[in-house]
């Protein structure tokens, strides 16, 4: 039996240096130094989607949402700041999710932790 989506997402997020999980708004959020870089969203506000919302640049958000609207969307509340919604209720490319979550972490984590992520630190 394949692992469920939240388990896979948890594994990807919590593998990052000092990442931790905090439940907020009734859903798991993933943080570094208590700053959110990703969150799981299952039918949040009745939208019917199972997704991960992750920090992104407005340019990346625009590119991905327009190129692949069946896979990506602009999430409510945080979307205007560039966050990206990635649907997990369809065929999922977990390597892509890993890359997006890692980039979100890079946008949030301090330099010392980025050095650890890149293998340059203790």
Report on the structure:
The protein has 122 residues and is of the alpha+beta class. It contains four helices and six strands. The protein has a six-stranded antiparallel sheet with strand order 1-2-3-4-6-5. Strand 2 and strand 3 form a beta hairpin. Helix 1 packs across helix 3 (94-108). The protein is globular, with a radius of gyration of 14 Å. The termini are far apart. The model has no long low-confidence stretch (mean pLDDT 92).
List the secondary-structure elements in sequence, H or E. Answer: HEEEEHEEHH
Tell the overall outline: globular
Please indicate the percent range of residues in DSSP E strands (runs of 2 or more). Answer: 25-35%
How many helical stretches? 4
Estimate the mean pLDDT confidence.
92
> Termini distance?
37 Å
- The number of E-state strands comes to 6
In spatial order, strands of the major sheet run 1-2-3-4-6-5
Give me the secondary-structure category.
Answer: alpha+beta
Q: How many strands, what sense, and barrel or not for the largest sheet?
A: 6 strands, antiparallel
Which segments are poorly predicted (pLDDT under 50) over 5 or more consecutive residues? none
Give Rg in angstroms. 14 Å
Helix content: 25-40%
A few lines on this structure:
With about 120 residues, the protein is an alpha+beta fold. The chain contains 4 helices and 6 strands; from the N terminus they run αββββαββαα.
């Amino acid at each position: 039996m394949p692992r469920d989506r939240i388990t896979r997402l948890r594994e990807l997020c919590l593998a990052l240096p000092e990442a931790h999980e905090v439940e907020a708004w009734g859903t798991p959020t993933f943080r570094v130094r208590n700053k959110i870089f990703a969150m799981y969203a299952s039918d949040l506000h009745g939208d019917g989607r199972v997704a991960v919302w992750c920090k992104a640049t407005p340019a990346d958000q625009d590119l991905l949402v327009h190129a692949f609207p069946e896979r990506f969307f602009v999430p409510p509340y945080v979307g205007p700041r560039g966050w990206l919604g990635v649907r997990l209720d369809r065929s999922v490319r977990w390597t892509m999710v890993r890359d997006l979550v890692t980039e979100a972490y890079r946008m949030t984590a301090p330099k010392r932790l980025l050095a650890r992520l890149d293998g340059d630190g203790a």
